[in-house]
Amino acid sequence: MESKVNLKEQLRVENMPTKEGYFGEYGGKFLPAALESVIGEIAEAYDRIKDDPSFKEELMYLHQHYTGRPSPVFHAKNLSDELGGAQIYLKREDLNHTGAHKINHCLGEALLAKRMGKTKLIAETGAGQHGVALATAAALLGLECDIYMGEVDIKKEYPNVVRMRILGAKVIPATHGLKTLKEAVDAAFEAYLKDPVTQFYAIGSVVGPHPFPMMVRDFQSIIGIEAKAQFREMTGKLPDNLVACVGGGSNSIGLFSAFLHDESVNIFGVEPAGTSFKTGDHAATLSFGKPGMIHGFKCYLLQDEEGQPAPVNTIASGLDYPGVGPQHSYLKDINRVNYDTINDQEAIDAFIKLARLEGIIPALESAHAVAYAMKMAAGMPKDQTILVNLSGRGDKDIDYVVERFGKEFNISE
User: Fold this and answer.
1) Which of 296, 310, 86 is nearest to 178 (CA)?
2) Which residues form the domain of 194?
3) What band does 211 get if pLDDT is binned at 50, 70 and 90?
4) Which of 180, 195, 216 marks a domain boundary?
């Protein structure tokens, strides 16, 4: 950990990001000429409305009366007692309308698009939670919606595909490459290039060209703001440790952002180790990647021998991305956040254990964070606390889990 003086200087809010969209050396905006002015227009529009009282009031109204915020913090006492160590608490983003944290930024982006006069939202999705949340926001605000999703993920997360279609969205398969999240992003960018005037590309994480990493982080920061106040009210102090899963990194930066200056709080981001640490078997970008370019920005990136984005693999479709948010890349470099991994088997074990001990079925993405918290807690004193961002619920994963692990956990016929 850096010294207190250095850490405070490195985390100066006004420097994250810079005017050009950089977090240290990461981020920025690297775009085709056709998109330069359009993305610049989004940045200018966001800069105008982010402090507009009428925008903030409308968004907060929807959070309270539509999403159901604030989401509660729950003491997972049964799980904590079973492990015999630190006390685990869960920030219940799975209880939001649509079942995950994604609705936080989707409502914000949709409101911004509406104010800009756009008529259609387009986006990529991996696990389908961003797609469902955006389709929901589009329906609410009277906008068209196209969702690009890898063919593999369409089969894996089919319940969410049905939900998107019921909500009126068009689900468009990405059929090239590995047919997962990266390819869905590729396809969405191509579609956006064809008509950036009437369409608004609502990026689903803290990735992409500036201003999206900043904008999505700002919309997600409500998680940490709520959690900090809630945890103090429950326990009289701040949590000793924060844990959240990291793919692109929106749920994690949403929790972490409120605590970055609190040096007593240890912060852990959990990446998917998949089935092995061999290239192509995992999606642990910050653990094994190096700085590179993807989808219009610079970040840590899993790369093949030619410097191109490497194939990735994980049980959790929402973490299946070779890049990561630029702010996470910066936080790794200054050692403010500790990034580690959980493999597929550890994640599914945590998925089942949380369900059977607490009656909560987590998303497979969130199960990575739960698994890491379980490993930590077992070796800690009972007076230590761990706050986990339970970023989504596991309804979307049930069919896949039964198919892959039904016999192992006695949940298939």
Assistant:
1) 310
2) 23-64+102-216
3) very high
4) 216
Q: What are phi and psi of 405, to 5 degrees?
A: -130, 10
pLDDT band at 180 (very low <50, low <70, confident <90, very high): confident
Classify the phi-psi angles of 277: left when phi > 0, otherwise alpha if psi is within -120 to 50, otherwise beta: alpha
Residue 6 lies in a domain: no
Residues serving a catalytic function are 102, 124, 391
Instruction: Determine the average pLDDT of the residues in 183-201.
Output: 92
Q: What is d(CA 344, CA 383) in angstroms, rounded to the nearest whole number?
A: 30
Cα separation of 326 and 299, whole Å?
A: 5
Q: Classify the C-alpha dihedral 253-377-351-390 as positive or negative.
A: negative
The pairs formed by 89-92 with CB atoms below 8 angstroms and a separation of 24 or more are: 89/231, 89/234, 89/239, 89/385, 89/386, 89/387, 89/388, 90/360, 90/387, 90/388, 90/389, 90/390, 91/223, 91/226, 91/227, 91/230, 91/255, 91/387, 91/388, 91/389, 91/390, 92/390
Q: What is the pLDDT of residues 300-338, one digit of tens each?
A: 999 999 999 999 999 999 999 999 999 999 999 999 999
Residue % of the chain over a pLDDT of 70: 96
Does residue 109 share a domain with residue 79? Answer: no
**Final residue in a domain of this structure, among 216, 233, 255:** 216
Q: What is the mean pLDDT of residues 94-118?
A: 97
Say which CATH number the domain at 45 has: 3.40.50.1100
**Residue 270, H or E segment:** strand 266-274
Residues 273-287: pLDDT tens digits?
999 999 999 999 999
As a whole number of angstroms, the distance between CA 118 and CA 52 comes to 19
Query: How far is it, in rounded angstroms, from Cα 223 to Cα 273?
Result: 26
- R_g of the chain computed on alpha carbons: 20
Tell me the three state secondary structure of residue 367.
helix
Please give the model's pTM, rounded to 2 decimal places: 0.94
Residue 110 sits in the same domain as residue 232: no
| Cβ contacts of 321 within 8 Å, gap of 6 or more | 126, 181, 182, 185, 205, 207, 247, 248, 283, 285, 312
